[in-house]
Design a protein that fits this description.
With 205 residues, this protein is an alpha/beta fold. 35% of the residues lie in helices and 19% in strands. The protein is globular, with a radius of gyration of 16 Å.
């Protein structure tokens, strides 16, 4: 349960080729559900192409075999971006008032935070993601997880979230899996509602 007067923080993590502004509208959907909550949607640290797109790690020549090494290498820059936000909002000593919400590559990085156990946030909501973290995994059991994925996603197969759910459940993480019929590689209104209600429960609002 959130202490009276305390503010929570939701950090939104975009996908490849997008930027923070792309996920910022989720805050408008969740404002009423999550009072006393701040929302921040940062840009990934690396450019993508020549436009405004950003990414958390390069996908050039990425493979199943080298993706875990890309994720490991990305941790320093990712943690710097997230750490600066957490410090700005005065929550460095209160990770249980923080939630991460990711989409696609943003979900990969959010799930890596959980898999590594290096920041025991209250909750992670991962849309259209995959677990791509290097072994061994050492997840924080203080973090709740919800995975939301469309069964018509042809960019990031829904089987990735199913596999991640099985792995985290086996590790003792409180995990939900929501497979949305007919949805492709995107965040739907139904998915946003599921995530908003999940965050509300996680923060004890």
């Amino acid at each position: 349960m959130t202490e009276v007067g305390a503010r929570n923080l939701v950090i939104l993590l975009h996908g490849v080729g997008s930027n923070g502004a792309n996920l910022a509208p989720l805050a408008n959907l969740w404002n009423d559900l999550l009072p006393n909550t701040d929302f921040v949607s940062p840009d990934g640290p690396f450019t993508f192409g020549r436009g405004p797109g950003r990414q958390w790690f390069s996908i050039e020549c990425v493979t199943e075999e080298n993706r875990p090494d890309r994720v490991r290498a990305a941790r320093g820059d990712f943690d710097r971006v997230i750490g600066e936000i957490i410090t700005e909002y005065g929550l460095a000593d209160n990770p249980q008032r923080i939630a991460l919400v990711g989409f696609s590559q943003g979900s990969i990085m959010a799930l890596d935070v959980l898999a590594s156990g290096r920041l025991p946030v209250a909750a992670i909501a991962a849309f259209s993601g995959r677990l791509a973290s290097p072994q061994p995994l050492g997840p924080s059991l203080l973090t709740r997880l919800t995975l939301i994925h469309g069964d018509e996603d042809h960019i990031m197969p829904v089987s990735e979230s199913v596999k991640a759910s099985d792995i985290f459940k086996a590790a003792g993480v409180e995990t939900e899996l929501h497979v949305l019929p007919g949805l492709g590689h995107s965040i739907s209104q139904d998915g946003a509602v599921i995530a908003g209600n999940f965050l509300q429960r996680a923060f004890g609002v």
